[in-house]
Design brief:
The protein has 437 residues and is α/β, with parallel strands linked by helices. It is built from 15 helices and 17 strands. The protein folds into 2 domains: 2-57 and 355-406, Urease, subunit C, domain 1 (Roll), CATH 2.30.40; 59-347, Metal-dependent hydrolases (TIM Barrel, Alpha-Beta Barrel). The strands form 3 sheets. Strands 1, 2, 3, 4, 5, 14, 15, 16 and 17 form a 9-stranded mixed sheet that branches. A 4-stranded parallel sheet has the order 6-7-8-9. The protein has a 4-stranded parallel sheet with strand order 10-11-12-13. The structure holds zinc ion.
Length: 437
């Protein structure tokens, strides 16, 4: 089955803009990118004409906890440790079960599809349920079962989580949409021994590892007290850090730690909304990119963002670096777009498969409708994508050649039902919440 997708503008990757172009898709993959009219004799079964749109690779949300949408707006205006220890962890202990994950992930997927995310890396619980729901919706995900030194909502001890993870990896190892992995929570919440065990398991199956690193100054101080080392140095010294490690946040790295990240080929993910809201700090990602470090963009969970909107995140990231550096040329629009697409794909281990629109890659793409006052006039599509577009302008989403959203209608999830179920579940939280957090 061949589809030709036409659009007024195509932005296939950083630095390239095609006007009046077409993308040829055969089954799950991209077969070619053309200037329109397509070459003589080009054959296809279906034409999808997106009209006055910008067609781009779909966004890669490189760090989230998707089911946490059900905790959206429950605990705001708090510092990270108080937010986590006194609110989030007790709520998770009480409410997170299979049903929570099923309902939460489905709602999160609706929100992600509407805001142009085609792939996400998720660290949370009951990932076998998240995998099932995500696969059904047709999105791509790197799913890591969260592991920590105390009981999780799902497992009584880390060894049971490791055992589950081994089975989970076995089950999805060759899947086209689900990429199973493991997610040790952070160097301050996992012992050295546990970190070594998770890395061994990840190495055995050559899967990425998701972990929070250097999110706050407080965390850096905890590590200094415990090991006499900052988080990145500590992880490097126990041979944890390499190209398969996805370090979320990396707000507080010194120059030597940036060098270590580059040498080891480890990637960092930037979650500006969450870092701003929890006052964790501003990761100097413009400097990271200049140093050659791999950088991705993510939303974090909706309990600290409070949404999963990558368009908004890209916008905030671009603005924030300029003030951080007091330099309006810092993180230019192309770089902001890059970390939200190709950069994200590279960091989560899917760089050879998604992140750009190129022949041979999966046909994972989205389109913004340009018929909007805030996108008029148009001189430079990349400027609009980063500085003016809104996620509500996205009307078309395709993953692996399959149309997930068309004309603003989601094809793979019953959106009304997903929202109704989430509302219903929130009633249980409201009723039981008193006295917990
Ligand atoms: Zn996180």
């Amino acid at each position: 089955m061949k589809k030709l997708i036409k659009s007024r503008f195509i932005v296939p990757k950083k630095g390239t803009i095609i006007e009046e172009g077409g993308v040829l898709v055969e089954d799950a993959h991209i077969k070619g990118i053309y200037e329109c009219p397509p070459p003589e004799g080009l054959e296809y079964d279906e034409l999808i004409d997106l009209g006055n749109s910008i067609l781009t690779p779909g966004f890669v949300n490189a760090h989230t906890h998707s089911a946490m949408v059900l905790f959206r707006g429950l605990a705001d205006d708090l510092p990270l440790m108080e937010w986590l220890l006194q609110h989030i962890w007790p709520m998770e202990k009480t409410f997170v079960n299979e049903e929570f994950i099923r309902v939460g992930v489905e709602l999160a997927l609706v929100e992600m599809i509407r805001s142009g995310t085609v792939a996400f890396a998720d660290m949370y619980f009951y990932q076998e349920v998240a995998a099932e729901v995500t696969k059904k919706a047709g999105l791509r995900a790197v799913l890591g079962e969260a592991i920590i030194d105390f009981p999780t909502p799902q497992f009584d001890n880390p060894d049971d989580t490791l055992k589950f993870t081994r089975e989970f990896i076995g089950q999805y190892k060759d899947d086209e949409l689900i990429y199973p992995t493991i997610a040790p929570h952070a160097p301050y919440s996992c012992s050295e021994n546990l970190l070594r065990k998770t890395k061994e398991l990840a190495d055995e199956y050559e899967v990425p590892v998701l972990i929070h690193v250097a999110e706050t100054q407080d965390e850096v101080n905890q590590l200094l007290d415990r090991y006499g080392k900052t988080p990145v140095r500590f992880l490097a010294d126990i041979d944890f850090l390499d190209k398969n490690v996805v370090c979320a946040h990396v707000v507080w790295l010194d120059d030597e730690e940036i060098r270590i990240m580059v040498e080891r080929g480890a990637g960092g993910t930037h979650q500006p909304s969450s870092n701003l809201k929890l006052a964790s700090g501003i990761a100097p990602i413009h400097r990271y990119l200049k140093a050659g470090m791999k950088v991705a963009l993510g939303t974090d969970g909706a309990a600290s963002n409070n949404d999963l909107d990558m368009v908004n995140e890209m916008h905030i990231a671009a603005l924030l670096q300029k003030v951080k550096e007091m330099d309006p040329t810092a993180l230019p629009a192309w770089d902001a777009f890059h970390i939200a697409t190709q950069g994200g794909a590279e960091v989560i281990g899917l760089g050879d498969r998604i992140g750009t629109l190129e022949e041979g890659k999966y046909a994972d793409m989205i389109a913004f409708n340009l018929d909007a006052p805030h996108l008029t006039p148009i001189y430079n599509p990349i400027s609009h994508l980063v500085y003016a577009a809104k996620s509500t302008d996205i009307h078309f989403v395709m993953v692996g050649g399959k149309v997930i959203m068309e004309d603003g209608v989601i094809k793979t999830i019953d959106e009304e039902r997903a929202i109704a179920r989430a509302r219903e579940f929130s009633q249980k939280i409201i009723e039981k919440r008193a006295g917990i957090a």
